[in-house]
Write a structure and sequence with these properties.
two-stranded antiparallel sheet; disordered N terminus; 26 helices
Length: about 650
């Protein structure tokens, strides 16, 4: 009988003695235990390449906060009075106004006096300063700035104060607008040209945008350059993250994810030091971008993803990477694997008709009531977490007495939250830790409204508590969403939720802008949003100790038995062992039991008789037979194609 492909089309008849090749794509995770899931090769790649490659994202995304520093004191420029002292110019040319209960010189108006004619007629300033009855006018000739604290920023160079003070906020909007577009464009390049090409193209785009930023002569050019930079965020962070995930075993992907987040945060802490030392915004732009030119040296050592190479049928290149991995890890590369892989690639080339892939879109997530509700709640919580987390990150420098120290502390508090989150997720589940962190973090923000205006340290302390908790909940939402969405639609679901969640980054700069009038107002707004999102998240079903759905039909049933009492169950009940399976095929033989009892992985590739199954074949049978439910895995993954290749997601 002829072998057939997934659509029922015949393949070329196998030669005599050759076994028909399974239609299922080969899972590289089956090979990794034999050549090392997290050996010396992966450790060198992770610590020396992938983790340092995450730093440019934080540097170039948040250096903008310090390019837009606003001097505390500024006033209208009066060119005709430039020969007089600063105090005389303010005393005779600037009216007094009240700001937050303090009377000081006006920032946005001046006396409407023709000083050129007055000085020509009188030769000197009036004997007494003007009074409030004199007419005033806007600052037609620009502004003067007290540069004792803020010596350089685009606000000073482009006069972005008074009626133009929203322009720096529009710059943040421009930066965040480029993100979703960049993830899509570099995602296409990532899938078609490979991870290496995509990363270095992304890095080149980032540096081009940064150089354009430094060379900008007006706000329009500066804002356009920030859109270019925004195209690479968070793609320049996610591509090396994907490379690392694709080269390590499933058991180590949680560790890789936490370490990637930690390195990203360390990059922000380093940025606080750089911005403290370099106060000129042009120099800051260059110092936070030019060093990354050395990253192009990674072209000589960064490997291409073997998963992507196999997906594209580039067998020899994939084997070179895998054989080098085995050699560096001190493992013996299984010779039988090469033959099996070659047979599969040849079978793909001999296909007369390509596989028919079932097209599943975002609307399929909303066709049934339970899946629709879960999709809405997942997307809402993703939106809340991403929006509030980035909003708090943007607002850090505005709090405290030293903006550089405040930004450093706001980054530092993320690291313990990642570690705690990593520990409690597998003990208390996903739902309760995420929701409690969101609710408590939001309450910390809201509490700032009852503090007196001079309670600077107390406000900063509550802000740091909130930032730490929101960092933890933001880390949880990614794997939680991946476990709630069925395997069949996981990529579509995560992609949809993350893109909609990313839209909040376009809105959040306007929320932080409100802090110009009331310092705690943005915190109160973000706190209320966080609390509301946390309570809605309690409606989601817990995934820890539960068998996870594979299809949309199973996804509709998963969590359908939710009751209100589940909201108050902190530690999830163990409904099924985390490592158990059900509905396994009867083809599992005694050899499978031997494998579970600890058979050496190397035997998986040893030649066997026709009646004996190797552990590799047993593992494949076991995976093929799990048509309905799979084992719980507390790994933090990213969305994948049908071939197992990972894709970009709009997630920081």
């Amino acid at each position: 009988m002829d072998a057939t492909d997934g659509a029922g089309e015949p393949l070329k008849e196998p030669e005599d003695g050759e076994k028909p090749v399974s239609d299922e794509p080969f899972d590289l995770d089956e090979l990794l235990p034999a050549i090392g899931e997290f050996g010396r090769y992966q450790k060198l790649l992770l610590w020396l390449i992938c983790l340092p490659a995450c730093i440019p994202c934080g540097f170039c995304a948040f250096n903008q906060l310090f390019m837009t520093d606003v001097p505390h004191e500024y006033w209208c420029s009066i060119p005709e009075l430039q020969n007089f002292t600063v105090e005389e110019r303010k005393q005779y040319g600037i009216p007094m106004e009240e700001y937050n209960g303090i009377v000081e010189y006006s920032k946005c108006s001046r006396y409407a006096i023709d000083w050129r004619q007055y000085l020509a007629n009188n030769g000197d300033l009036p004997p007494s300063p003007p009074n409030s009855s004199w007419p005033v006018e806007p600052c037609y000739d620009g502004w003067e700035y007290n540069t004792s604290v803020v010596s350089s920023s685009i606000v000073i160079d482009y006069n972005l104060v008074c009626e133009y003070d929203i322009y720096p906020t529009l710059g943040l909007v421009a930066l965040n607008t480029g993100g979703p577009v960049g993830v899509y464009l570099f995602g296409l390049l990532n899938d078609r040209a490979g991870r290496r090409t995509s990363y270095f193209s992304c890095l080149a785009t980032l540096l081009l945008g940064s150089f354009m930023t430094a060379a900008s002569s007006n706000f329009a050019m500066w804002a356009f350059s920030r859109v270019i930079v925004g195209l690479t965020i968070p793609a320049v962070y996610q591509i090396p993250f994907i490379i690392a995930l694709e080269l390590v075993g499933p058991n180590y992907r949680s560790f890789v994810t936490v370490m990637t987040c930690t390195f990203y945060t360390c990059g922000l802490m380093m940025l606080a030091g750089v911005t403290y030392l370099i106060r000129d915004w042009v120099e800051l732009t260059l110092f936070t971008s030019v060093p990354f030119l050395f990253y192009f040296g990674y072209m000589f050592v960064m490997p291409e993803s073997p998963r992507w190479l196999l997906m594209k049928g580039k067998l020899e290149e994939a084997l070179q990477v895998l054989e080098k991995m085995a050699r560096v890890n001190g493992k013996q590369f299984p010779a039988a694997f090469k033959n099996k892989l070659q047979a599969r690639v040849d079978a793909e080339k001999r296909r007369t008709v390509k596989r028919e892939e079932v097209s599943i879109g975002a609307f399929d997530l909303c066709r049934t009531p339970n899946m629709r509700l879960k999709t809405i709640l997942i997307t809402l919580n993703w939106f809340v977490n991403e929006t509030v987390y980035l909003g708090l990150s943007y607002y850090g420098p505005s709090l405290g007495e030293n903006q550089y120290l405040s930004f450093f502390l706001s980054s530092l508090v993320e690291i313990p939250s990642y570690i705690v989150c990593w520990i409690i997720m597998d003990r208390w589940g996903r739902r309760w830790p995420m929701c409690i962190m969101m609710i408590m973090g939001g309450l910390c923000c809201v509490t700032t409204v009852v503090l007196p205006e001079d309670a600077v340290s107390e406000t900063l302390f509550l802000y740091l508590l909130s930032k730490s908790m929101l960092s933890a909940s933001f880390l949880i939402i990614y794997p939680f969403a991946g476990e709630l969405y069925p395997t069949q639609v996981r990529g579509v679901g995560i992609g949809t939720s993350s893109y909609i969640g990313g839209l909040g980054l376009i809105v959040i700069p306007f929320i932080t802008y409100l802090g110009k009038e009331n310092l705690v107002l943005p915190l109160v707004i973000m706190g209320c949003v966080s609390v509301a999102g946390g309570f809605t998240g309690l409606r989601l079903p817990e995934t820890l100790h539960h068998r996870l759905p594979q299809t949309l039909e199973e996804g509709e049933l998963f969590g359908a038995d939710w009751t209100f009492d589940d909201c108050f169950r902190c530690v999830p009940s163990k409904k099924s062992p985390a490592g158990s399976y059900e509905n396994l095929s009867h083809e599992l033989s005694d050899a499978a039991l031997e494998l579970n009892a600890g058979m050496p992985v190397s035997r998986a590739y040893e030649p066997t008789t026709s009646t004996e199954k190797t552990p590799l074949e047993i593992a494949r049978i076991r995976r093929q037979s799990m048509k309905r439910l799979v084992r719980q895995a507390s790994t933090m993954d990213t969305q994948k194609t049908a071939d197992g290749a990972m894709q970009l997601t709009y997630w920081f």
